[in-house]
Design a protein that fits this description.
It is built from five helices and no strands. The chain has helices spanning 2-21, 26-74, 91-94, 96-117, 133-160. Helix 2 (26-74) runs antiparallel to helix 4 and helix 4 packs antiparallel against helix 5. The radius of gyration is 24 Å and the shape is extended. Residues 74-78 have low confidence and may be disordered.
Length: 173
């Protein structure tokens, strides 16, 4: 199945390449595609990796501070592997992926909306881009944030009830 899909993809790429080559502006398209690769690999990719790294560092620092506060107030702490002394996994570590996924999705939404947000105003034809795209982007980002918070709360509640990930780990001999 993979071979069939790969062959179909290569065939469609070849057709697309031939269609572009027949155009009078094929060099402009090739330059644009090369620019897209450079933009992605040179700016967007490293930026996403840096944000992910900083997110991990900041969340770990926050968890360390919370762990120190818990130890000083209650005498309870966390073991080196991120579990509390009673064997439960720390909720913050498991939500790191949720935060990173939310940030990546928000970044994609902004990149998709960026061309219409940066368009020159006013347009000659009022039927072109007739919507309020800034409002649409804001609503989309708010919905994304609310869904991420609800998912994080649901995960925490499930762990509190002893659901998946909340079971105490078996003592090691």
């Amino acid at each position: 199945m993979r071979t069939l899909l790969g062959a179909a993809g290569l065939a469609l790429m070849a057709v697309g390449g031939l269609l572009v080559w027949d155009q009078a502006t094929h060099w402009d398209v090739l330059i644009w595609l090369a620019g897209a690769v450079v933009l992605h690999d040179g700016i967007i990719g490293p930026l996403v990796l840096t944000v992910g790294l900083l997110t991990g560092i900041l969340m770990n620092r926050s968890l360390s501070n919370r762990s120190l506060m818990n130890r000083s107030l209650t005498g309870n702490g966390h073991t080196e592997d991120g579990h509390t002394e009673d064997g439960h996994t720390d909720n913050g570590l498991s939500n790191r992926g949720l935060l990173r996924g939310t940030l990546m999705t928000a970044g994609c939404l902004v990149l998709i909306a960026l061309p219409v947000l940066l368009r020159p105003l006013p347009t000659a034809n009022p039927s072109v881009l007739p919507l309020n795209y800034a409002r649409g982007l804001t609503i989309s980002l708010v919905v994304l944030a609310v869904l991420a918070v609800l998912l994080g709360v649901a995960r925490r509640a499930r762990r509190g009830r002893g659901g998946r990930g909340g079971e105490p780990s078996a003592p090691e001999d």
